[in-house]
Amino acid sequence: MTESSPLLQVRGLTVRYGAGPVVHGISFDMPGGAVAALLGANGAGKSSTLRAIVGLEPARGQVLFEGRDISRLSTAARFRAGIVYVPEGRQIVADLTVAENLVLGSYFVDARTRASRQQMVLDFFPEIANRLKSPAGLLSGGEQQMLAIGRGLMSAPRLLLLDEPSLGLAPLLVARVYERLALIQREQRLSALLVEQSFHAAARLATRAWVMRHGHLVGELGAEALKSREGRQQAIDAYLGAGEGAAA
Ligand SMILES: Nc1ncnc2c1ncn2[C@@H]1O[C@H](COP(=O)(O)OP(=O)(O)OP(=O)(O)O)[C@@H](O)[C@H]1O
Ligand SMILES: [Mg+2]
Questions:
Q1: 2 C-alpha to ligand 2 centroid (Å)
Q2: Relative to the CA of 197, which ligand 1 atom is closest?
Q3: Contact 42 CB / ligand 1 (< 6 Å)
Q4: Which helix (H) or strand (E) holds 25?
Q5: CA torsion angle for 4, 213, 211, 148 (degrees, to 10)?
Q6: Closest CA to 213 of 194, 197, 234
Q7: What is the rounded CA–CA span in Å between residue 29 and residue 229?
Q8: Could you say which residues of the chain have pLDDT below 50?
């Protein structure tokens, strides 16, 4: 892969669950070293797209990672290639401790790497550092989201797929989670593809975004449009229209 070639290339991706497709042959290229976002209302097909990229849903079309076609690889093989998915709703294991949940994110790395990654994760998320022996189910919603992201970081991913990290969190906690992600992004040059309903939350991190509606990509926002509140509002009005303003 050359410096300028995309980290992730999605080509004609189609996902269907039975009847009609819910993702209709979408294509986009994502550069490395930055955060891009997939934005849209409920049911637009955002999670289905992420799940297809990691191989959790069967899909047509192609997914290229660092120039290599990974479309036929298992989810485990895509994980080993460096693509880590942090699912919607966190899905930490409530009965396991915080430390055990972190180990789950790094089962194939050696003990020394695991220890150093854990230290890094706990430095980024001090809220969970003194809760290592607590059952994860006892953490607050925001702490559980930090644990889920921390678990995703344990294997030193080359691409992190984040499905609605703001879901169910109070505004103050959304701000805190995003602040930490921004710090991690700067310090680790993290590459991430973020899914959000909220254009404003995503704009804290993303430098480009695609708008998804009814399984199609209907628009694209660059860094400038994302940075300005008016730019984001114009995109919401233009691409989602009245009545789909959940994206505010
Ligand atoms: N396992 C499934 N079986 C059948 N239909 C599904 C399944 N998962 C999702 N769908 C349908 O596919 C469409 C897209 O769902 P998806 O979860 O990808 O949307 P989303 O953009 O992530 O929405 P949200 O913002 O609400 O999470 C929806 O109509 C949904 O009902
Ligand atoms: Mg979703």
A1: 32
A2: 25
A3: yes
A4: strand 21-30
A5: -80
A6: 197
A7: 25
A8: 1-2, 244-248
Helix, strand, or coil (residue 154): coil
CA distance 242 to 40: 13
C-alpha span between 89 and 241 (Å, rounded): 27
Residue corresponding to tokens 């809220």: 127
Place of tokens 């809760």: 131
**Burial degree of 113 (CB within 10 A; 0-12, 13-18, 19+):** middle
Q: Which pLDDT value is given to residue 35?
A: 96
Q: Residues 97-151: pLDDT tens digits?
A: 999 999 999 888 888 989 999 999 999 999 899 999 999 999 998 899 999 999 9
Q: Assess whether the C-beta atom of 197 lies below 6 angstroms from ligand 1.
A: yes
- Determine the distance separating the centroid of ligand 1 and the alpha carbon of 13, expressed in angstroms: 15
3-state helix, strand, coil in the chain (%, to 5): 40, 25, 35
Is residue 185 lining ligand 1, measured as CB closer than 6 Å? no
Output the six-digit token pair for 14: 């189609």
- Identify whether the C-beta of residue 43 lies closer than 8 Å to the C-beta of residue 67: no
Residue of 236, 162, 241, 160 lying closest to 199 (CA atoms): 236
**Which of 22, 39, 88, 199 has most ligand 1 atoms within 8 Å of its beta carbon, as the pocket-test mutant?**
22
Q: Rounded to an integer, what distance in angstroms lies between the CA atom of residue 133 and that of residue 113?
A: 20
Rounding to the nearest 10 degrees, give the CA dihedral for residues 10, 12, 39, 146: -40
